[in-house]
Amino acid sequence: MNKIDILLGLQWGDEGKGKVVDALTPNYDIVARFQGGPNAGHTIEFGGKKFVLHNIPSGVLTPGCVNLIGNGVIIDPHILRGEIEGLAKAGFDLRQTLLIANRAHLILPTHRALDAANEKALGKMKVGTTLKGIGPTYTDKTARKGLRIGDIASADFRERYESLKQHHLRQMTAVDFDLSGLQLDGMSFEAYEKLWFEGVEYLKQFQFVDSEYYINEALDNGKKVLAEGAQGSMLDVDFGSYPFVTSSNVIAAGVCSGLGVAPSRIGKVYGIFKAYCTRVGTGPFPTELFDATGETLRQNGHEFGATTGRPRRCGWLDLPALKYAVMLSGVTDLMMMKSDVMDEFETIKVATAYRYNGVETKQLPFAACTETMEPVYVSLDGWRQKIGNEKTENGTPKGSPTEWEVKRRTENNIPEKLEDYIKFIENYVGVPIKFVSYGPDRTQNILR
Ligand code: IMP
Ligand code: MG
């Protein structure tokens, strides 16, 4: 019986999941998204080209790989269409390889409007959402009001749409919000709504499936399946820093409900984290840096949102938070990303505990959002050298961009101080770091 492997972000999102899924995909027949929606921005770079995926699984650039948008995902048809067409222009035709779950919920234009209305009503306490309608859509799912992909074929779809839209308009009135001044992706609500319906029609050429049967049968038939998470564990609706979280379960448990697979069918759990931390939006971030070091992380790491363009908040690695995420999902293999961003650092700090209410603790407190948590740091020496050497003179990575190739290296090729950093993390968290990425390209990785 084949098991489904999972790849999860262990921080606040933007760990580099797109790159790793793209790197792992040649080992899989199917890549499936199980939660989130177009709030995600998964960046894949190769051959000097950059692709940002929002709704589509990151297996699309690998020929022959089937990509499934699972039932736990929420979909904006207009955004999804734009993504599919962008990939088609780059030579990737998804008509045979993209499958969409009937049970996946639709993000209506008024869900996006409500997202804006809710944020406005919160004022200073706003979550800093991506304004893609994520919260309102999951709210309607739980409130049993939502529309799903499988509904778009039904004769009364338009009526049901109108009825839900009217419900949303009443909710907006209650918080003194109207659609007149609203801009959605630079256009009026009416213009967006028109494109949204065109997107619905466009999606009808794709295959809709009952993803729970599809995945379980694929596993029974010996297919290899990778579930690709979006966002990160610290944004999980249950275990993140509530209310500054997203609206889905982004931990391993989300795979069971978001694809319809049983816990006993879960295999490897790859957990991915950056060698430092970033966060977008509001909410606690104990190791955040407001100084020149933070700015260096932001500039070296190009830490600007792939979905919203916002500058990301940057700070040192937070080990209690990382260990918490590993615990919640049963991570078996760790992957550390963006190590190269700290190549020039003389000293690197890592938080190993928090001081909070006068006591030192290694656990994340319930009141993380209202109390000040002061990190307790350990300082380690930086490695102060470039990792990897396979760049050509003009700075592009060597090797054929279309050929996936892992640079298998021995531990000796890793700078000694970087190896110390890696071992420090492994000792704290208790899980091996098997993969170290040192650049955005597909080929810039070290396997340990
Ligand atoms: P929402 O998911 O758009 O509702 O946003 C809720 C919170 O999650 C905000 O702080 C967002 O910045 C954050 N967030 C949502 N998706 C991502 C992501 O893919 N990467 C990083 N942060 C995200
Ligand atoms: Mg992202």
Walk me through what this model shows.
By secondary structure, the chain is α/β, with parallel strands linked by helices. Helices cover 29% and strands 20% of the residues. The strands form five sheets. The chain has a ten-stranded mixed beta sheet with strand order 9-7-5-2-10-1-11-15-19-20, with helices on both faces. The longest helix is centred in the middle third of the chain and has 18 residues, at 157-174. It is globular, with a radius of gyration of 22 Å. Bound molecules: inosinic acid and magnesium ion.
What labels would you give this structure?
448 residues, alpha/beta, 10-stranded mixed sheet, 11 helices, 20 strands, 29% helix, globular, binds inosinic acid, binds magnesium ion
Set out the fold topology.
Layout: E1 4-9, H1 17-24, E2 30-33, E3 42-46, E4 49-53, E5 66-69, E6 74-75, H2 77-89, E7 98-101, E8 105-106, H3 109-122, H4 134-142, H5 157-174, H6 189-203, E9 207-209, H7 211-220, E10 225-228, H8 253-259, E11 266-274, E12 277-279, H9 292-300, E13 313-315, E14 317-318, H10 319-329, E15 333-337, E16 347-356, E17 359-361, E18 374-381, H11 416-429, E19 433-437, E20 445-447
Parallel strand pairs: 1-10, 1-11, 2-5, 2-10, 5-7, 6-8, 7-9, 11-15, 14-16, 15-19
Antiparallel strand pairs: 3-4, 12-13, 16-17, 16-18, 19-20
The structure holds inosinic acid and magnesium ion.
Q: Overall pLDDT, averaged?
A: 92
C-alpha termini separation? 28 Å
Q: How many distinct beta strands?
A: 20
Largest sheet: 10 strands, mixed
**Sequence stretches where pLDDT stays below 50 over 5 or more residues:** 390-412
Bound molecules: inosinic acid, magnesium ion
Roughly how many Å is the radius of gyration?
22 Å
Class computed from helices, strands and strand pairing: alpha/beta
Shape: globular
The fraction of residues assigned to DSSP E strands is 15-25%
Strand order of the largest sheet: 9-7-5-2-10-1-11-15-19-20
Helix content: 25-40%
What count of helical segments does DSSP give?
Answer: 11
